[in-house]
Amino acid sequence: MSASGEIPADAGPAARAEIERLRGELRRLRTELRRLEGVVGQAGDVIVTADLDGRVIDWNAGAARLYGYARDEALGMDVSRLYHHAATQRAMMRALRERPDEVVRRDVRVRTKAGEMRWVGLSLSWQRDEAGEIGGTIGVSHDVTERKGLEAKLRRLSITDQLTGLYNQSHFFHRLEIEKERSRRLGHPLALLLFDLDGFKELNDTRGHLAGDELLRGVGRALFDNVRKELDSAFRYGGDEFTVLLPGANIGMAARFADRVRLRVAALDEGVRASMGITAFLPREPGQQLVAEADQAMYTAKQAGGDRIAIHDPEQGGPRLLEST
């Protein structure tokens, strides 16, 4: 067959038949290629192909819809621009190199052209030619932002006290172990405050549970207003008991924090006061019972008439009252 596609005049019958067969096969392959391009282009999934330098070499309509870049804009772009954290891309590529015959799957945060952050479920694999040689990567993903949002909401609900908005008791024990380990590792101090409300039962009995609930919400607000954001953690321990983890705080700092909260509680209702106990974590004592120590200190404050703060003093082997302020 000539370069123009015509069959040479001197071609024999067998050659002509083979040429016609090849022409038909070529037409079929072109039709199949167009069909596949259409399927890939219109697929709901996001499909991004990149070369070994991390440059986009193919970009379907799903990618354009999610990221906001037209195909012409995306071609040649470094795929690292799509990741919210560059470390995520490096981790994905490292996993791909370690398991070259597998598909690496992970939920990752990505960044759109408009700067919006989205979550995608990404499946990343090597793109290979007919000889099996690696020529780049192919990433197939779909938007899972809504699912991630629902999962985060469920996690929050599972660790949050619905009345006060504070963390609940089960999350307290989880965070306590984390903060103890961090204190050991970094050598930073860690204080624990535990308190309950004197007079709360009488308030419930005389004015009803709605008034009691409102007071508990007020305690929650007092804690929110006084904790160091992104550092301290406040919990409703149960009933009218509350606890706060204070990483990096020594006894003196914890006592000043406790006194601020004590005064706020006293301002909520004239008949309700807080009895407070404080203890400090000692990394050299792995079996230290922080909650029991704080509870003993709280009981000491309560026995002294309430509206007081006591600390567990390891030098005295037990609790001692702080001077009333």
Verbal overview:
The chain has 325 residues and is an alpha+beta fold. It folds into 2 domains: 44-148, PAS domain (Beta-Lactamase, 2-Layer Sandwich); 160-321, Reverse transcriptase/Diguanylate cyclase domain (Alpha-Beta Plaits). Helix content is 45%, strand content 24%. The chain has 10 helices and 11 strands. The chain has helices at 13-42, 61-67, 71-74, 86-98, 145-159, 169-186, 200-207, 209-226, 251-268, 290-303; strands at 46-51, 56-59, 104-111, 117-128, 134-143, 190-198, 233-238, 241-247, 273-280, 309-313, 318-321. The strands form 2 sheets. A 6-stranded mixed β-sheet has the order 7-8-6-9-10-11, sandwiched between helices. The termini are far apart.
List low-pLDDT spans. 39-43
Mean pLDDT: 88
Helix content: 40-55%
Structural class comes to alpha+beta
Strand content: 15-25%
Whole-number total of structural domains:
2
State the end-to-end CA separation: 103 Å
CATH topology of the largest domain: Alpha-Beta Plaits
Rg over CA atoms, rounded to whole Å, is 33 Å
Number of alpha- plus pi-helical segments: 10
CATH classification, class level of the largest domain? Alpha Beta
SSE string, helices as H and strands as E = HEEHHHEEEHHEHHEEHEHEE
> How many individual β-strands?
11
